[in-house]
Design goal:
Layout: E1 2-13, E2 16-27, E3 31-35, H1 42-50, E4 57-62, E5 65-66, H2 72-77, E6 80-82, H3 95-106, H4 121-133, H5 149-162, E7 167-171, H6 179-190, E8 197-201, H7 205-211, E9 214-219, E10 222-228, H8 229-234, H9 236-243
Parallel strand pairs: 3-8, 3-9, 6-7, 7-8
Antiparallel strand pairs: 1-2, 1-4, 4-5, 9-10
Helix pairs in contact: 3-4, 3-5, 4-5, 5-6
The structure holds adenosine-5'-triphosphate.
GO molecular function: ATP binding; ATP hydrolysis activity; L-isoleucine transmembrane transporter activity; L-phenylalanine transmembrane transporter activity; L-valine transmembrane transporter activity
Domain ABC transporter: 4-245
Protein name: ABC transporter ATP-binding protein
């Protein structure tokens, strides 16, 4: 079963192709790593997959259903989640509330002002369960601004996992973390159940390589090497465009 399929995807900005005929098929449960030099088009590919930008041509499907023109929110309802940068979180709010807000953002129901936020029991439970999954249950009452960079990264992952995604896109989850924090996030990602397919963009090869089952190498908006971890690492083109950087 293919979880995420991209066919002949193209996108240009001001006449420059940033995504050129990209094809990608990620199997259900797979852990895929996307690598490539700066400007290769990795984030643009994620933006196309989540629907934040629209392709010029080509198609995207999620578990066999075409979503090429489906709005972002609807894709999220169908099981697509993405980790966002910390900037989008609320510093003065507690970790619990931040995760609850993420869940509310996805919820079809409207925010009910007559029920105190903390009394929305199901939301509280889901938020706490998500924080427990990333080992932060004990910090649920702490304002986000008082947490470390590594803890915040785990909150981002908790927010995405709380949505019970079928496909999770991780955009540089190890960026800016210390070696110890990288190991924590790595352990956490390795523990995510197989019913979540994960696609990761990452530059930190030490931890990312361990995570990857298959690797796709992008360069100038094109897939130039793809295969198992061993195949891609051994491929001279990988060394040429990426590992030599
Ligand atoms: N909205 C946009 N308008 C114009 N050009 C854009 C836009 N978004 C991205 N680009 C350009 O597309 C190219 C690819 O960018 P993208 O962010 O996808 O690369 P990347 O592989 O994620 O790079 P990095 O590793 O540096 O994050 C870059 O040259 C970038 O300047």
């Amino acid at each position: 079963m293919i979880a995420l399929e991209v066919k002949e995807l193209r996108k240009s900005f001001g006449g420059l192709y940033v995504t050129r005929r990209v094809n990608l098929a990620v199997a259900a449960g797979e852990r895929r790593l996307i690598i490539g030099p700066n400007g290769a088009g990795k984030t643009t590919l994620f933006n196309l997959v989540t629907g934040e930008i629209t392709p010029d041509s080509g198609s995207i499907s999620l578990f066999g259903e075409t979503i090429t023109r489906t709005p972002v929110r609807e894709r999220a309802h169908r099981g697509m989640a993405r980790t966002y940068q910390i900037i989008t979180l609320f510093g003065r709010d507690t970790l619990r509330r931040n995760v609850m807000l993420a869940l509310l953002g996805l919820s079809k129901r409207r925010w009910n002002p007559f029920i105190a936020f903390e009394r929305q029991r199901d939301l509280v439970d889901k938020a706490e369960a998500a924080l427990a999954m990333v080992g932060l249950a004990h910090l649920a009452d702490r304002p986000l601004a008082e947490t470390s960079y590594g803890e915040r990264r785990r909150v981002e992952i908790a927010m995405a996992l709380a949505q019970k995604p079928r496909v999770l896109l991780l955009d540089e989850p190890f960026a800016g973390l210390s070696i110890d924090e990288r190991q924590d996030v790595h352990k956490l990602l390795m523990a995510v159940p197989r019913d979540v397919t994960m696609v990761m963009i990452e530059h930190n090869m030490d931890v990312a390589l361990e995570f990857a089952e298959k690797i796709t190498l992008l360069n100038f908006g094109e897939v130039i090497v793809e295969g198992t971890r061993a195949e891609v690492v051994a491929d001279p083109r990988t060394r040429e465009v990426y590992l030599g950087h």
